Amino acid sequence: GQNIDQPTEMTATEGAIVQINCTYQTSGFNGLFWYQQHAGEAPTFLSYNVLDGLEEKGRFSSFLSRSKGYSYLLLKELQMKDSASYLCAVSGYSSASKIIFGSGTRLSIRP
Amino acid sequence: KAGVTQTPRYLIKTRGQQVTLSCSPISGHRSVSWYQQTPGQGLQFLFEYFSETQRNKGNFPGRFSGRQFSNSRSEMNVSTLELGDSALYLCASSLDRGSQETQYFGPGTRLLVL
User: Fold this and answer.
1) Pick from B27, B22, B23: which is nearest to B95 by CA?
2) Chain-chain contact of A98 with B99 (C-beta, under 8 angstroms)
3) DSSP sequence for A6-68
4) What pLDDT shows up at residue A80?
5) Residues B98, A96: Cα–Cα separation, whole Å
6) What digits encode the pLDDT tens for the residues A12-40?
7) Do A33 and B102 touch (CB under 8 A)?
8) For residue range A68-111, what is the model confidence (pLDDT) as tens digits?
9) Cβ of B68 under 8 Å from any chain A Cβ?
10) B20: region left, alpha or beta (phi > 0 left; psi from -120 to 50 alpha)
């Protein structure tokens, strides 16, 4: 079967660091996406990891461990505008595969 | 470059009716995917179209159908609406087909079935 798990909700403080975890079990795996979705808006692309390791992009970093079926999104120097849902999505191993999304983690930033 | 557009943005229908939603992808993008998003289920994949052909389909009943035109615009149809079809319907386009492609989402159509 296919399963993607991420926490439903998280709270963090402005200026701090937060790590959002995602674990997956899929029949085929090519890479893992992270998307950000503000309330009432469309998801927007954050990162795509194919190889193991950490990829940094400004205040956001994404990590992947293929052997452990595990990824995390790290947000540094949190700002109020980072309050949003963060969606983890797994892409299959072939061009015929679908992208499977997790249910998302709703992150709230407090002053 | 204009983003993905979806029409209408909001829609209210009653049970038993049918509805058609439209999606215009980013210029040059040939793949269009449709998703249903509900608070309880998250983003659920409906189908993907590429070059006017359905390439992939999710686990939804046959009441959900779609098509893609030669200009890559896509439509999604839901017949015999049920209360449970109330959701945000998102369309996403990508340059090429394949799950490795980054998808760009439209603003969605919020459908309410009464």
Assistant:
1) B27
2) yes
3) --SEEEEETTS-EEEEEEEE-SS-SEEEEEEE-TTS--EEEEEE-SSEEEEETTEEEEEETTT
4) 97
5) 6
6) 999 999 999 999 988 778 899 999 999 98
7) yes
8) 999 999 999 999 999 999 999 998 765 556 788 899 999 999 99
9) no
10) beta
Pairwise CB contact (< 8 Å): B43 & A43: yes
For residues B23 and B108, the answer to whether their CB atoms sit within 8 Å is no
Residue stretches of chain B with pLDDT short of 70: 1, 97-100
Q: Do A5 and A70 form a contact (C-beta atoms < 8 A)? A: no
Which pLDDT score is estimated for A1?
60
Of all residues in chain B, the one with the smallest CA distance to A101 is: B43
With H, G, I as helix, E, B as strand and everything else as coil, classify residue A77. Answer: coil
N residues, chain A: 111
Contact residues on chain B for A99, CB-CB shorter than 8 A? 33, 45, 99, 103
The partner residue sitting opposite B42, judged by closest CB among A42, A96, A104, is A104
C-alpha distance across the termini of chain A, in Å: 41
Q: Do B102 and A92 touch (CB under 8 A)?
A: no
Residues of A with CB under 8 A from a CB of B: 30-31, 33, 35, 41-45, 48, 50, 87, 89, 91-92, 94-104
- For residues B37 and B90, the answer to whether their CB atoms sit within 8 Å is yes
Q: Is B71 helix (H, G, I), strand (E, B) or coil?
A: coil
**Which chain B residue has its CA at the smallest distance from A99's CA?**
B99
